[in-house]
Amino acid sequence: MKRVVFLFTGMVCLSALKAQVKEGTIVYEQKTNMHRVIQDEQMKAMIPEFRTARFLLLFSDSISVYKTVPEDEAPDPFAGGGGMRVITRFGGGGGDLYKNFSQAKSVQTAEVGGKNFLITDSIRQQPWKLGTETRTILGYTCHKATRKVMQAAGNIRRIVMGGGAPDTSNQSRQQAKEVEIVAWYADDLASPVGPENYGQLPGVILQLDVDNSANVYTAIEIKKTVDQKELKEPKKGKVITRPEFTKLMTEMMSSGGGGFRIGG
User: 0.70 exceeded by the pTM?
Assistant: First the structure.
């Protein structure tokens, strides 16, 4: 009888392992409440309340690449007028983001002043608190995890293109505040990845809510395959550390340099 129970248990465990997906491709839709991070009423009146964007996450059990899905539709309504452009970026800071978990290493692409950079950093543990609640997303049972982080309130900067000075209003100088991050991860997808720089959970994050729906990422498509050629570490650009890149950007902003672009 014990042998039968052992065999049955072994078959269940083997079946569970087979059910786990260790590679795939996910499309996320990001919905950002722009009015939540803008205090200027005149600026609010100029732009829609919500902005949506799409991102692509390619992953294996130890490597991931996160990139923006190009927008080929109508001109960006957030581009502003009078030669101004609104640049928004949350979380990791933009650009194609490569992660190698076996090496605890990340590389992010950036283009500044016509020069390509490779921003290197280490992958650090993220102190998630695992919960018991579940929800279903695209057919996958997802478990809840939460954590709190300090986030700069002024994550939107308005830059005058063509050599003008950057916006130095109060909204870009506000102090950091503590916000709650709520993640829903699927342990059937066996990779510690997620949108932006979030992850380090027992499965892929399929939905991420930052600061009570101020910024929400939701998986809208999942494929159980990935193009292995797309999981290669980027090599084009000057290698630079995260602190060095932050210093470079600060100097450009303070000197009123021209436009810059992060990522593809």
Answer: yes
Cα separation values, 3 from 6, 17, 62, 147, Å = 5, 21, 36, 43
pLDDT higher than 60, residue 259: no
**Amino acid letter at 152?**
A
The answer to whether the Cα torsion of 178, 182, 187, 189 is positive or negative is: negative
Q: What pLDDT score was predicted for residue 38?
A: 80
* Number of other CB atoms surrounding residue 90 within 10 Å: 21
The first and second tokens of residue 149, run together, are: 């982080």
- Give me the DSSP letters along the chain: -HHHHHHHHHHHHHHHHHH-B--EEEEEEEEEEGGGS---HHHHHHS-SEEEEEEEEEE-SSEEEEEEPP--SSPPTTS-STTEEEEE--TT-SS-EEEETTTTEEEEEEEETTEEEEEEEEPPP---EEEEEEEEETTEEEEEEEEEEEEES--EEEEETTT-PBP-SGGGTPPEEEEEEEEEEETTB-SS--STT---SSSEEEEEEETTTTEEEEEEEEES---GGGGSPP-SSEEEEHHHHHHHHHHHHHHT----B---
Check whether 81 has a pLDDT greater than 80.
no
CB 248 within 8 A of CB 257: no
